[in-house]
Amino acid sequence: MMKAENNMRELIPYFDSDNASVESAEDFWWCFETATERFNNATRLRMVAARIRGTVGERWRLNSRLTVFETLKRRFYNRFIRLTKEQLLQRLFDATQEPDELVEDWGRQIARY
């Protein structure tokens, strides 16, 4: 199992928590979850610890007592993927409707936030 773990670890990119955007966090998590779906909880927790870089991620990981993968998944989402209220408001304020864009289409675009 150790060889398979090392091989998977090489496929998963590093996650730079200090400079991460929501999109890069989503990409990392998708790649990580897909690559490790056949491993047990302990192995997955070790692998995510090995792939997170940056002081924000290291501090987050060291302050979290994680024993179950679902807890890790929820906490990673809440910390790195979910937008803060300020980020959400900024995206809404920055969203502009094009002159030839229908109101319904623009509304669907805004509803994604």
Automatic annotation (TrEMBL):
Superkingdom of origin: Eukaryota
What name does UniProt use for this protein? Retrotransposon gag domain-containing protein
